[in-house]
Amino acid sequence: METIQRALRGLAITILAIFVAAGLQGLPAQAATGPSKYVEGTDPAAFLYDPLNITSISLTLPDASLRALSVDGFNWNDPTTEVGWQEGSAVFSSYKGTLPSMDIGLHLKGGAGSRRPISTCDPSCRVLTNSKPGIKIKFDFGSANASQRFYGLKEITLNSMVQDPSMIHEMTDYRIARSAGIPAPRAGYMNLVVNGVNLGLHMILETYDKQLFKRWFTTGTSHSYEGAYWQDLILNPTAIVRDYSTLQLKIGDVNTAYTDLRTIATINNLSGVDWWNAINRYADMGELTSVFAFEHFIEHWDAYSWYIINNYQVHFTDDGILTVHPWGLDQTLSNNTSGDRNVKYLDATVGPAARPTGILYSRCLQYTACKLLYQAAIARIGEVSDSINSVGFIDEIWSVIGPTVLADPIFRGSGAAAMKEDAKAFLSTRTQTSEFRSATTGRRLPNLDLYYSPPSHFEQGKVVAPLVNNNTGFAPKYTVLGDSTSPICSVDEVSGAITELNPGNCVVSIWTPAGPLVNPDDGNPGFHSAYAIAYVDLGKIPGSILLPSTRTIAYGVSVPLVFKGNSSGDQTVVASGNCTFANGAVTATTPAGICTLTITVAKDARHTPATATLELKISKEVVTTYSLSTDPNWTNSTKLPKGATLPLVNKVSKIVGSCINSGTTLKALGATGSCKVTIAAWATSTQSFVSKTFTVTLAPNPQVWLQKVALPVAKKKIGSARFTLANTDTVTTSGGQEGFFGYVGNCIVEVTPRATFVQMTGTGVCKVNLDAEAGYKVGAIHRVWTFTK
């Protein structure tokens, strides 16, 4: 039989031989004392999805939450108007014991047919005793609980199963799907109590989240979406069907979302061979046709591949490969259907009132190669259902949950036993019906597998040959999947050999056509069409980091660290030794020793991660800018008066000009010009000062006016004329001080751009003075004039 490589990746039904004695407080009487053979996986939450163990959860909701939830309801046109998360607390019990109370968030779930209220407020609030809601519980609800997990899970889904009185449909269906290699949720049973009111048995259903997809897809998830009620992967809406943009984003960056859906919707504008060739580059057609076959095999009328285009999940790997996943399987496994619910394997793709089925399904049935692959998938789903004894599985489930179902506090088991028997009868004869035999054509299931031995590292141009298991007798066709604008690899369509073009995952499909109904050579049935897919990690370019050439750092100075990795991944720097690293700069914390920097650049799509170590020898801080003098009143622009002395910052190595020194004291010998003083290099315990030459401007002592200022006069008669005090509007001294005029008496001092004057305004004596403050080591300067008219 054909095998799907994904089944080998994702399905691990392990019989666990561990029986743990534990308290059963609050659990139904049917609960066992350890995991059953149906537990899949070894993750911490695996035991929750055990059909033969019933766990329990007791919720406490405050009045505010009950009041908010009391007005919740399904909204056809705008699901965002439904009531969001409400706070509460939860206590969980299983054969492992009882967990401490956890703060949680809760909201109701369900579509038009299954959404039920949880509370009423008239005006006091209470939990309804005649309603059985489906709910979602969020364990990382609120900032205080951001790191809280429930056996590794952030959320759980509890389906009320109100449209399946037997409460076995979803459990049975999902097991068939997973056994056929379809990535689908695990499921278990959990009894729900809210504020002391027993709301009966619920199904805990694994959420389509990153954790689920990680178990099935090793290449990661870029986006996932949920589709419901006539939402389809089409570009433009019709009178009945909504377009791709109406699907709800569940996982992925909102800034990049919907571009992948648009690509698929654009392809779906094509038909026939054009559609087939295009969709094969972006979709796992083995998985898609398996889902369509599965939905039809279980009579899932409320599905993507039937007239309501409902209850489906869309997933894109990091490589951009599309898969579709089943959801909402409660109304299945029944022959008692009619009208829209009478799902036929090969029925017309347009139903009553011109309602179409999902575009991917209808396009598939319209093209022979895809239709034959779908028919092969029907045969395989039927074989899987029979081989895992789905009928016996129902009996095992019922032996555990039957008494609880029949005693359900809401439905009292109404119709449950009959529906369980109907499901058994449906499955026991499903592969024997004439419709099934006609749809599957009588061909044999083939074996087709594709595998490439992954290279140890990326090597552009290298050719890797396939390992193929193919018993069909037909030469297969190979196709590379993914974005053709930046391909990871190319493939020879005949030999299947791939050529490495870029680092990353090379995704290749293999397909063989259907054989004849009867082989003319031996009279045996021919083989079905077959499909398999292989994900080949071609490795990546080894990561590298280019370090700066400098290998020293001065104490006390923050130095930007500049390095370059060939990966675009996140960069981290960890400092150890005598330094710190912050805001992109490294700072030595001692004047000697070694600073060690460990630099890491994370992987990206093309490169492996890289780590490098940079050792910097720490030296004293090198000081190149400092003052000539230790005198705080001295600046490098200050003038030194003749005969004045200046304390120097360090000893002198050279003097040129009219100055002399005695040790670290400098003395001015001249009144004009300058002298050049070279300070010798020196060091402290933490700093090294370089030798530096300063220019010292010399000045007279005492101060003199630098501009032409009138000589002093006493009671000089000037009449009405103006007397020139200075030939400028601003007077300064050789000590760098500014002179200021003042006057007393019947006169006025007038300043013009070219001169400063005094003029009498009346009789009597006018006194004018010009004053400048003391300069550096020189006294103040003063001049006085007196005038009469």
Characterise the protein shown here.
- The protein has 789 residues and is α+β, with helices and mostly antiparallel strands.
- It has 6 domains: 5-211, no CATH class; 221-440; 448-537, Sandwich (Immunoglobulin-like), CATH 2.60.40; 545-612, no CATH class; 639-699, no CATH class; 716-788, no CATH class.
- It is 16% helix and 31% strand.
- It contains 12 helices and 49 strands.
- The strands form 14 sheets. The chain has a 7-stranded mixed barrel with strand order 1-2-4-7-8-10-9. Strands 42-49-48-45-44 form a 5-stranded mixed sheet, with no helix packed on it.
- Strand 28 and strand 29 (585-588) form a beta hairpin.
- Helix 7 crosses helix 9.
- It starts with a helix and ends with a strand.
Summarize the structure.
With about 800 residues, this protein is of the alpha+beta class. It has a seven-stranded mixed beta barrel with strand order 1-2-4-7-8-10-9.
Instruction: Describe the global form.
Output: elongated
Structural class: alpha+beta
Biggest sheet, spatial arrangement of strands: 1-2-4-7-8-10-9
State which percent range the strand residues make up: 25-35%
Main sheet specs: 7 strands, mixed, barrel
- Give me the oligomer status: single chain
Low-confidence parts, pLDDT < 50 over ≥5 residues? 1-31
Helical content stands at 10-25%
H/I helix tally: 12
Distance between the termini: 131 Å
Query: What's the count of strands?
Result: 49
Mean pLDDT: 91
User: How many structural domains in the coordinates?
Assistant: 6
Over all CA atoms, what is the radius of gyration? 44 Å
InterPro entries: Spore_coat_CotH_CotH2/3/7
Pfam families: CotH (PF08757)
